[in-house]
Amino acid sequence: MSALRYYVQTMGCQMNVHDSDRMGDALRAHGWTETSGPEDADLVVFNTCSVREKAEQKLRSELGKLAPLKKAKPELVVAVAGCVAQQEGEKLLGRNPHLDLVIGPDNIPELPRLALDQRNGALPTARTVFDYDAPQFLAAQPSAIEPTRAPVSAFVTTMKGCDERCSFCIVPYTRGSERYRPSAEIIAEVQAWVSAGVREITLLGQTVDSFRDDALPPPASDDPDETQFPELLRAIAREVPALARLRYTSPHPRHLTASLIAAHRDLPVLAAHVHMPVQSGSNRILKRMIRRYTREEYLDRISRLRGAVPGLTLSSDFIVGFPGETDADFEETLALVAEAGFTSLFAFKYSPRPFTPALKLGDDVTEEKKSERLQRLLAQVEAQQSAHLATVVGTEVSVLVEGLSKTAADGTLTSYQGRTSRNEIVHIPDCGRALIGEVVRVQVTEAFRHSLRGDIHPSEISRLAPKSSERRTKRSLALVPAPTAG
C-alpha cells in the first residue's frame, strides 16, 4: 500500500507558516508524504489567518475551487486549520458540505489521527480546544534534514496567545491567552537548527517580547513592562555561539524596555533591524485601539534603541481607516512615519473582525478614503526606503546569502540574493562560488527601488567552495517580517 499524501496551503503570517511546517512534521511521522498540489493528495489542509477579512474571503474561494475534486474523489479529506478554524469551528462545517475537518492551532498534534478517522468514515469533525492545562509547543526536527537541504533561516516559537486585547484584533480569541514555552526547550531547538546548518533564527510569538519563564533571571527592574525576553535573548547568544543571526517578531512597543535595548546593545548576534508595530500615529486613535502607549512614548523608545545600536533600521505595521480616524489623525500617522524613519512597513485597511471591541465603534471611514490613505502611506515609506538605500551605495556590508536570485533564459544562474543585518535585500552576481548560507562581505555598487546590488569583496573568494558543492537549494523561510498580532 502506497503512503498517504498531504498538501498544505498556508494563508497568513509567519506563525501560520511555522504551524504548517509542524503539521508536515506530524503527518510525516505517521507515514504521510508531501505532494505538490491538491490533485494528488489524500488530505488537503488550508491553514488560515483571520486577522483580516480578505484572508477569510480567500479561504471561501479556495474551498469552492476544491468542490469538484472532492466530488470526483470522495475519499479525499478536506481540512481547515488555523485561526479561521478556531474562530468559526463547527459553523464552517455547516457552510461547506465538502469540508471534513476543522482543527484549531492547539490541536495540530491530533491531525494525523483525525485525518485517518475521516478516511475511515468518521462524521465531519471540529476540534478547536485550547491547551491551557498542558500547553504544547511543537518543535521542529532539524536532525531529520539532509545537511545540504537545511534552510538558511528557521522559525522557533517562544509563546502563543496574546493578552493585549487591542480593540481591532481577533488573535486573543483565535489563539487564546498567553502561554510561554520553557526557555530550555527554545534554546535546545535553536541549537538543533544550528547544528543542522541553519544560520539565522527568528523567534516567533504573537507578542514575542512579553515572554516569561521562572527558570530565567527575573526582570532587571520593577518596570511593569519589563519581561524576561531580554534574558532569553542573552541565554540563546550564550548557549548557541555558532548562531550567525537572531531576529524576533512580532514585539509590542510596551516591552521595548531598558533591558531589551541593552540586549540589542550588548549582543552582536541580534540583527540591526527591528519590526516594531505601531498601528497609528494619532494618540486619539491609539487610545481607541487600546494600544496602551502614546506616540511620544513610542518615538522615545525607538530613539533610545537607535542610540544603543547606531544604524539600526526599523519597520512597522499600520492600520488605516480605523473607526473615527480623521484626516488630521492620518496626517499624524504620516508625520510619525517620517520622524521614525521606517525603511519598510506593512499597512492595511481596517476591516471589522468578529468578537473584537472595535465593532462597537462602527466602520465610518469610506472605502475610497481608506484606499487613498493606504496609497499615500505606502508611497511615503517607499520614498524613505529609496532614500535610505541610496545612502548604502559605496559602503561595505555583510550579507547572509539566502538563495538564488535570478537566472538567464537558458537557466544559467546569474545572481544570488541575501540580506544584511539591517534587513536590506542585496543581489550578488554569480562568482563561481557556493554562496547560499554564507555570510559574505559585499561592496554595494547600485541601489534599486527595494534592494541593492553589490560585488563580493575579492578577499572572500578564496575561502568559498566552488559552486558545484553548493550547500543548499532551499530558500530562507524568514525573508520578510510578515504582519502579526503585534
SSE diagram, text form:
Blueprint: E1 5-10, H1 14-29, E2 33-34, E3 43-48, H2 53-72, E4 77-82, H3 83-88, H4 90-95, E5 101-103, H5 111-119, E6 125-127, E7 153-157, E8 159-160, H6 171-175, E9 179-180, H7 183-196, E10 200-204, H8 229-239, E11 245-249, H9 258-266, E12 273-275, H10 283-289, H11 295-308, E13 313-320, H12 327-340, E14 344-349, H13 367-392, E15 396-407, E16 413-420, E17 425-429, E18 439-447, E19 452-456, H14 458-461
Helix pairs in contact: 7-8, 8-9, 12-13
Question: Your description of this structure?
Answer:
The protein has 486 residues and is an alpha/beta fold. Helix content is 33%, strand content 21%. The protein has helices at residues 14-29, 53-72, 83-88, 90-95, 111-119, 171-175, 183-196, 229-239, 258-266, 283-289, 295-308, 327-340, 367-392, 458-461; strands spanning 5-10, 33-34, 43-48, 77-82, 101-103, 125-127, 153-157, 159-160, 179-180, 200-204, 245-249, 273-275, 313-320, 344-349, 396-407, 413-420, 425-429, 439-447, 452-456. The strands form five sheets. A six-stranded parallel beta sheet has the order 2-1-3-4-5-6, sandwiched between helices. Strands 15-16-17-19-18 form a five-stranded mixed beta barrel. A three-stranded parallel beta sheet has the order 7-10-11, with helices on both faces. A hairpin with a 5-residue loop joins strand 15 (396-407) and strand 16 (413-420). It is globular, with a radius of gyration of 23 Å. The N and C termini lie far apart (46 Å). The model is unreliable at 473-485 (pLDDT under 50).
